[in-house]
Amino acid sequence: MTMPDMSLRTRSSARILARMGTAGLFLACGLVGGCVSTSDVQSQNASRERRAAQDPEALARIGDAAARQNDMKTAAAFYGKAVALKPDDLRFALSYAEALASSGRADEAISAVRGALPHMAENGKMRLTVVLARLLTASRHNQDAIALLRPAITSRPDDAALQIAMGVALDTAQDHAGAQTAYRRALAIDPSSLSAQNDLALSQALAGHKAEALSDLRRLRTLAVEQGASDAQIATIDGNIAIVYALEGDVQNARRSGTGAAVTDSDRRENALFYSLLAAGGGGRDVMPSTPAD
User: Which of 134, 291, 294 is nearest to 201 (CA)?
Assistant: First the structure.
């Protein structure tokens, strides 16, 4: 029996494909059985999407990527999906709350943290309590923040972060003496806390002791640089130095110090206007301590 000429057959197939061009490629692939169809690709993509939709880590990574692009609306959407799948994960809850707050949805951030609290272990509860207190304070629900923090401090009197959060809430409620007591308690627990030192100095300025506050903040900035503090921590201290200058009516120095606390030209313009208004008003009623993370 004569065997078929395979080389001729191969050449014939090649000529057929050449005549068909790319438009007939998928049809040809179907005939020879060596390619994946469009429907197969779509099915595989859909399968991957379904798996990703059930993977909280994958969803959080998408949220992280969006946050790095400053697309906080998208970040919040994906962090929210991750939280729904794994409500006891502190990382997801914190990221979700931050994204919501950063996109101007403070009330939703507060609700998200309240909803996450029952799912957390003890340490997670304390971290979220601090975050919730800061969100409430930023939303001017000072008394709600204070009421939240009191029992938490009673159960964990050695937690410096809770004391600092209480100080910020009290400062915003114009109870500067009470705030300074809270900051000093935090420093008794953690003497190296930049947050407590920073907020104590600003609280003194808000209480009218501006020269003392300015001296303490300058010293703190030098210490922070010597200790290798992050740029964000140093920028926060610079911002508070600028606030104290503005409270003194020294707009020129306020703007100069505030330059170090601004990232963009828009930030610098907004800060300059804020310091001018603060100096003109001569008071700190709407000033909240800006706390660098330790």
Answer: 291
Q: Flag whether pLDDT at 13 surpasses 90.
A: no
Q: What is the mean pLDDT of residues 90-108?
A: 94
Q: Is 76 helix (H, G, I), strand (E, B) or coil?
A: helix
User: If we measure between CA atoms, which residue out of 209, 212, 270 comes closest to residue 239?
Assistant: 270
Tokens of 129: 């309590």
Burial class (CB in 10 A: 0-12, 13-18, 19+), 71: middle
Question: At residue 265, what is the residue type?
Answer: D
Question: Tokens 């994204």 — which residue?
Answer: 99
Rounded Cα gap, residues 237 and 234, in angstroms = 5
Q: Where are the alpha helices (DSSP H) in 157-264?
A: 160-172, 176-189, 194-206, 210-226, 231-248, 251-259
| DSSP code of residue 54 | T
Per-residue model confidence as pLDDT tens digits over 245-275 = 988 888 888 888 877 776 566 666 666 665 5
**CA distances for 16 relative to 11, 13, 21, 23, 242, angstroms:** 9, 5, 9, 12, 77
Separation between Cα atoms, residue 187 and residue 200, nearest integer Å: 10
The answer to whether the CB of 197 falls within 8 A of the CB of 187 is yes
From residue 206, how far is each of 80, 265, 290 by CA, in Å?
38, 27, 13
- What's the rounded Cα separation, in Å, for the pair 108 and 76? 10
What pTM did the predictor assign?
0.73
Buried b (16+ CB within 10 A) or exposed e, 113-141: beebeebbeeebbbbbbbbbbbbbbbeeb
% of the chain at pLDDT higher than 90: 56
CB 162 within 8 A of CB 126: yes
Residue-level length of the chain: 294
Alpha carbon distance 119, 109 (integer Å):
16
Task: Return d(Cα 1, Cα 5) in angstroms, integer.
Answer: 12
CB count in 10 Å sphere of residue 33? 6
